[in-house]
Amino acid sequence: MNPNNLLIPVLLPLLLALFSFLLPGSVKRLREAVSVLGAALFVYVAVSFFGQKETLLTVPWMGHGIDFELRLYQFSQFILLAVSGFTFLIALYSTVRMAGHARLREYYGYLFLTAAMSAGAVLANNFVPLVFFWEGLLITLYALITVGGRGAHRTAVKAFLIGGFCDFCMILGIAILWSQTGTLRLSDISVVPQGLTAVSFYLMMIGAVAKAGSMPFHTWIPDAAVDAPVTVMAFIPAALEKLLGIYMLSRICLDLFQIEVNSAPALVLMTLGALTIVLAVFMALIQKDLKKLLSFHAVSQVGYMMLGVGTAVPIGIAGGIFHMINHAMYKSGLFLAAGSVEQQAGTTELKKLGGLARSMPLTALGFLVCAAAISGIWPLNGFVSKEMVFHGSYETGYTVFTVAAWLGAILTFASFLKAGHSVFFGPRAMENAQVHENKPPVTLAILALAALCVLFGVWNALPLKLFIQPILAGHPGAAGEHLDFTAHALAVFNPIALISMGCLLVALGLHLFGFKRGGNKAYLASEPIHRLPVLHTIYDLAEARVFDLYEQGIKGLQALSRFLFRFVDRPIDAFYEKVVVGVGRAASGAIRAAHNGLYANYLAWTIGGLAIIAWAIGALLR
Amino acid sequence: MSNLWVLNLGFAVLLVGVGLYCLLTMRNTVKLLIGIEVIAKGVTLALVAGGAARGNLMVAQSLAITVIVVDVAVIATALALVININRHTKSLDVRKLTRLKG
Amino acid sequence: MHLFLLIGLVAFSAVAILCRELLKSAISLAVASIFLALLLFEMGAVYAGVFELSVVAGLITVLFITAIALTRGDGDVAEGRAQRWVFPLFFLALAVVDVLVMRRLLGRIPAIQGSESGGFSQVLWNQRTFDLVGQVGVISAGVLAVLALFRREGGHGKGEGHE
Amino acid sequence: MSLKKTMAQNIQTIIILTIFVPIIGSFTIPLAGLISKKARSFWSVLLALATTASSMLLIPFALRGGELAFRKVLGLGVDFIVVADALSVFMAVASSFIGALIVVYSLGYIGHEENQSEYYFIVLLFIGSMMGLVFSANLVFLYLFWEIAALACWRLIGFYRVREYVLKADKAFLVTFFGAVAMLLGFILVYAQTGTFDLTAMRGTAIPGIAVLLILMGMFSKSATVPLHTWLPDAGVAPTTVTALLHAAVLVKIGVYAFARLFCWTFRIPEGWQEAIPVLAVVSSLVAAAAAVVETDLKRILAYSTVSQIGYIFLGFAVMNPMGVSGSLLFILMHGLAKAGLFLCAGIVIHATGERDIRRLGGQIKNMPWTAAAFIFCAFSVIGIPPFGGFFSKFMVIVATVQSGRVWVAAAALFAAVLTMYYLFKVFSAVFMGEPAGHGHKEGTRSMVFVVVTLAVLSLLAGLLVAYPTKLANVAAGEILRWMK
Amino acid sequence: MLFLYIIVPLLLAGLLPLLGKLSKRLLPDLLASAAMLFLLVLTVIGARPLISGGGVIQQATWFQAPLNIRLLLDGFSLLMLFTIALVSFVVCVYSIGYMEHYGAKANYYALLLVMIAGMNGLVLSGDLFTIYVFLEMAAVASYALVAFGRGPDELEAAFKYLMLSAVASAFVLLSIAVLFAVTGGVGFGAVAQGLKTLNVRTLVGICSALFLAGFGLKAALVPFHSWLPDAHPSAPAPISAMLSGVLIKVSGVYAMTRVFLGVFGLTPALTTVLTVLGVVSIFVGALAAIGQNDIKRMLAYSSISQIGYVVLGIGIGTPLGILGGLFHLFNHALFKSLLFLNAGAVEQSTGTRSLDKMGGLAKVMPVTAVTSVVGSLSIAGVPPLNGFWSKLLIIIALVQAKMLTLAVLAVLGSVITLWYYLVLQHQAFFGKLNEAWKSVREAPFWMSAATVVLALLCVAVGLAFPFVVGTWLQPAADALGQGVNVALNFIGF
Question: Which residues lie closer than 8 Å to D155 by C-beta, 6 or more apart?
Fold first, then answer.
């Protein structure tokens, strides 16, 4: 393949973005049409790239080893395909959902810019273009969130700042890695993390997992769920950022660094993953707004991926990556469904919704399938990938992570029972009387994603063999082993799978218990857990954003800044304004006071001066 | 002769000292001018004594005369100043001349 | 004789300074001038002595007396009371220091003997001509100064304006 | 041979023109002012553009790695020596170009003030002194142009003749003068050691630490680096065009240029200082960023931001590896574009609303969308977000710092970048977002908006087409560090 | 020919009081300015070629008849003559406008001319005693000129000035008397020769101290400076310019330098004392100036400070130091005169010297404002103005002489200098226009012309400093650099 073709996935969306920017706002349908068609073309390009031989494009750029290098190989082919697919679906969905929005022009522009940047980041084989695209995504993220309206700006800034901080960490990591290895080419690097390179690993890991939305860098996601357009949520935090983040994390763990099983980096990653799973899902459980609930799950699920990749055993890694793609599908589907509901019912508050299954059957179907998938119901894709992660974490010997993952599974299912129950079943809420099914592009997108969830679950061999196994083939940990995860992908009768099933039952029980306790109101089903003695306090604190690292960080920044300002900057200024001027004035005053106008005084100076000079000359002569 | 020169020089210095004392401690402006005159006398003495001691008497005399002439001019100007000041302040006290300071 | 004249010179100078009345001071100064003139005579410096006698003892005394008469302000200036005992102390100290310094100089200072030729006027005219120009200049400066300070016309301009 | 000679002569002529067109031209501006206001404005813009054009003519020469030094013997060891290489050409182009844009902007901004003749006169003199400075290869002439710049800066900061403002101008002048004379003393120490002021003759000379300290005081005072920085925020009392000029094009870049020219290009400085300067730079960066977070005056925030960014430039030069040096050079360009844009945007806001306290501003995006967009573009560039130009320069500086083994310094610098991000967004939110404070403010004249949009677009283009300036910067970096080999 | 420098002003001074009866304004203005212009041209065209081969001694003539007056001219004297002629010409031009309201112009010019004659004579004399005589001549004229306004301030200042000067003269004379007694002569050559043959270090030390006190008082070196802040501000502005610009340099610095470098020979002890005095003067003068509210008093303190630089430079004793010191002397004559003339213009227009009451005068007095900016920056040592180059040379010389501490102090001094000049600028010219001065007009033509000439000279000397240094200063520094040899060579004449 001609290496220059590698620019197409970047340039095509870029052109689409420019088209959208330049097209006057008054032109209505053309923009949507071109966008959908263009996105389809994008998918076509990605598909045609799939399975190609490894291709490298190198353009000299800035010297110092900074070249514009793109590399197409199995992993990037796969991610590229996913990116293009989601772009297409979101574009399709947006034609309805965003119709008539005041800033449509910018919306599509940023959408395709995001796609272009993502494609670039995925293909980049040199750290500088990688960071270029990677960090460039911050701008589109910022811009897309602000499309949500005036109130969204705060959230957009939050997202930007968190992302920026983590990206800077990654830059530092890259810088260290470069200084250690002497090259910026990703494909040339493979080091053992120790000493400085370990620092580099952690820093780059922060960048990667933060992009994916891991704790504690997740806090903008629930905020954005409220402020940003739901398509943006479905596109970025739910899909693209997971793809990119976990892609990067896998690159770091598989290629750039040689991570041993249960080595310190692996344990750190797993711990972070486990914490993310549990803490985020606890937050998700008690949410009373569908979009917020979904957004917390978007965080929680990252934990599985990190846990999987962090196990450093082949099945775990494969599970993590597989979970990434699965999650992108069902979480997008869920967000899109939520968006559909929002568009039709005007709200996503669980309390105000109910019984929509009849009036919006297709949306409900899509939602339920996706919810089942995320909960890990057999035989959907979520089950497969989660099982792989469970296996992987179990293999490391640290069962505690497996337990945490199971706990997450329980609560995930419980919260989706609550959500599904309160939105689509139960008595129909008064406000929802006039709700109808949404337009075809919307349902099409949702159903397509749901169908993929089923497909990847039932025919899991397809993604596993096509996508996942080739990626791991070159991995040192898997070298020599014959990789085949399909064998027991859907196997139920093994201890781990059985425990997982049991977890689901526990979740059902919890839900029913809560449902009864809450006076048959589904949205209150999580209240028993919410009300648990210690947990309740913690929840309150969390609601007050005490655990929000961003808010605390900003407070810290401000405090530090005030400190530096008051005790370093101002004293320096005071030195000039007060001390120097004061000393000058004081000296001047003293000298002026000495000139008191008395002749005798002046004469005394003269004679004294003569005496001193005579003495000095005498002394110096000797 | 050298000893005589030293003697004269000693007295000349004494005169200058007395004159400086006057300038330092006295208040009356006219008195100060008298102090200046005393100093001038000391200087004249020193000049002539110097000449006399080394056989340069004629030069010394011409120098002394010039000094005296200069002295007159200075004293005249000074007295004119004193009289003018006296017109303004109605006083001869040098310690009241402290308009200019700082 | 020489020493006597020197002591007289210093003594009258001191009196001129310590005298409470300006007029007496001026006269004491004139007497001191006469002593100096005698000293100069004694040293052979006749012309300088004559000049001293006429100009300093005469002209300057007249100037002083005129000024004292014009100002009539000697009554309002009270010299410090301490003068009576401070001056002797100062004088004594000065004299002691003077004697000490001069004794160290005694006979120690090498010197080049002058080799003068010609009389006074020749020296004055041939060697110190430039000084004469200077004298003329200084005198004219003095005259112009007095003229400027006692000028009638013109007023004070803005000189008095600022305080 | 003769061809080469004619070319050298051409280059000489161009350099002389670049230096003296603005300097001599500046003195004709008051004369043009006698004709009419229009003539003066036109003439000023023309001069500025001519300077830019003439400096740009040198780019091909510099890209070829050409280095030309020629001298006019004046006696007393202070010959007028001019050196044209990639470094000086890079600086000259960056400064004169941004300067020219600011002059265009001034047409709208200063259009109704008094003392316009003086304004344009001094601005052109300012630009001219910068041109002279970058081409000077004699320490005395370096100092000379240095002080002319300080002088111009003094008049311009006190442009509004309010007493407090004039006092701030005095402060600026005094602090920079203090630093400058200290630097002069340093130069003289070097002179006492080498017996020459000629930089070209001193390449690779090791100089004593005390001289480094003294010279550094000059650079720090001019480039407003902690602890000699507080005059720069105070200089915000000047018309915004002036502040933009100070921050972006001319003044603060002088110090860093001198750093590159002296401590990288010419002298070998003692080990201890090589270790200390990066730390000093990053401390400056941090303190200033912190101050920017706390301040509420729009222009003071931006001023502290400059102080903070200057720290990076120093850092890049101070680590003395090719990447750091070319990163810092790029930084000068990128920061110049973006900071000029930010200030000029702030100028539009201040011009329209008469308000500088960000707590009393808000919602201006409604009234001035172009300005808001330009502001955020430039802010992205200053923060260092791709694809804007600032990203590359910051990235290179950080990477170079790590490469030189100073991981903690790089980490601190990145932390300052986080602060930068925070305060710039704070400013943007406070000024353009939120509830509108006051309505119906106009966006400013066409020339003003044109310039800010141009700067914003240039900030973006500088990132997308970063390869071109980098080429020049790399050539310069190679030349600068040549003696190290 | 050189005798013209003395006799022309002196004769004119004698004539003017008579001519003044004929024409109160025009004739004195015209004649004085013409005489000064004549001397200036004479210096540039006539006198400079004389010293192409080093110093000369010229026999004065009176209508072709030789007089027994021998005038010494070397590079140093020439520089001083040039400075005197330049500043006094500008001052005369300025006086045309300024002295209108004082009246008695003829008398004023006569005194001024006597003063100039005195300074010229001082510079041209080759004899310690003659130096004293002409010093007194200039001084007596200057007492009267300080008191010319006859206000209480003026009289008080003149009185103190006179009383301190008289003491200084006595010191000088005493020293001359001792030298005369020891060496048997008062000519430079005789004294130098005598001191060379005799070994009288202690005596020379004492004489040095006396000379330093005497001439130091004339030059207003701290601690002998106390009269200057009173006398210079009180005088009419052109006279302030004259005093600060030339008189303290001629009767103080020139005489001191001549004696120490040309007759005694600079010893390390003297170097130390001179440089320390110089630095102390720099700081005392500069610090005192910060707190001043009277514009002219500030300038006067500034003179003390700048004289400190001159003495510092010369005191180093190295060729470069001397060059720097002399250059600064010349420059200071230019810019300090300029600043005093500016102050005079402001005083005349607004009627006040108080900085507090001024403000924003740049708007109504643009020429004065611009020229004063030039002067201020120049004196602070901002390039490319002339003050920078001379300070640069001094500091280079200090560093080369390994006097690093003094160099740092000198540099700091120039920062303080800039400080108070900025205070002056923002109080007087910069800043908002004070309401009271809305109707103030720019100074009359001749005054503005004088300031513009000086300002242009400041710039021109700054830009063309190699030329100026080569033409006027290098010969002067060379003459001094030879030390006592110059004087010894002249003994045969």
Answer: D118, D122, D169
